[in-house]
Amino acid sequence: MLPSILEIANQHNLTLIFPKGRSKEVLGKCPFCRADEGKRNKHYLSLNVKDNVFRCWYCGEKGGVCRFESLLTGIPESEITEKYRGTRRKNRHPAEKLTNTQLRFIGFYSKPNWKEMRKKNMDYYRRTLDWIWQEWRSFLQEEKRQAFVMLLVSLFSNHYDKGIAMIQKREQEIGESMLDDLLRLFSQSKWPQWAIDAKRFAMHICNPTVPFQLTEEEQEALLVEKICLELEKNCGIMVQPEEVENHMRQACIQRSQTVKSLSKPAGQYYMPVAQ
Questions:
Q1: Tens-of-pLDDT digits for all 275 residues of the chain?
Q2: What is the C-alpha separation between 6 and 106, in angstroms, rounded?
């Protein structure tokens, strides 16, 4: 069972007032934008006790009690939701655990009625869950890529603290943690291709003279590395990159010679007769 939004506000010592004649609404100082801080008669935060939702009329931050607690504590909204729902829905599909806020990020304005969907068509229900989960994972991957670019730009420009703060703010907005994974990735000796591309893009942002696109030599080196990894993974064959490069070079020479041998000498081609 979800707690009262008023209870969460009191736990975090928020400044609240109870306007007369507004039994379901409580006003307070917004802890997110702090635009009303120091203003005696200004209270931009509104808590709807009846519907258990909040809204700041200055910065526009809004949502339910789980999002409210998530923004106050820095804990992802999905973890807050699971904390109150307990283990009674442990076997649910991960897509069913997405909050309304998270679903809005991938184009859904409200949570589907999963119970009704199960009753009508179980196959459609499962396919919809898989599709939504795939959309969310794609969204998260793009978010991580952008956050990694932000992290690298902050490092290259000596604004590390500012970059970390921006990533943490985005974590709260989407209800998912990213920073720990990105820092672990940064410390690894070998990065996946998307991280290498992100680094090149970050370097280009910090210094526009650094080209963002890979050169032909770099693309060829990546292709050779990919071939070596595939041979080792699928065939158990250990091949040095130099061997692959030599093989590719010989194949290009042979292909060039074959094309030349198939070419007709000049004068053997005839223009079609006009009709």
A1: 788 898 999 888 888 888 776 667 889 999 988 888 888 888 899 999 888 899 999 888 888 898 899 889 888 888 888 788 764 555 778 888 888 889 999 988 888 888 888 888 888 888 999 999 999 999 999 999 999 989 988 888 888 888 899 999 899 889 888 988 999 989 888 888 888 888 888 887 777 665 555 555 655 665 666 666 676 777 776 766 676 566 656 665 565 555 455 544 444 444 444 44
A2: 30
Tally of CB atoms within 10 A around 146: 15
What would the two tokens of residue 32 be? Answer: 């997110």
Instruction: Report yes or no: 76 and 176 within 8 Å, Cβ to Cβ.
Output: yes
Q: Which of 87, 128, 84, 73 is nearest to 106 (CA)?
A: 128
232: left (phi over 0), alpha (psi -120 to 50) or beta: alpha
- Bridge partners, residue 54, by sequence: 47, 63
Q: What share of the chain is helix, strand, coil (3-state, %, to 5)?
A: 55, 5, 35
Residue 86: left (phi > 0), alpha (psi -120 to 50), or beta? left
Cβ contact 103:113 at 8 Å: no
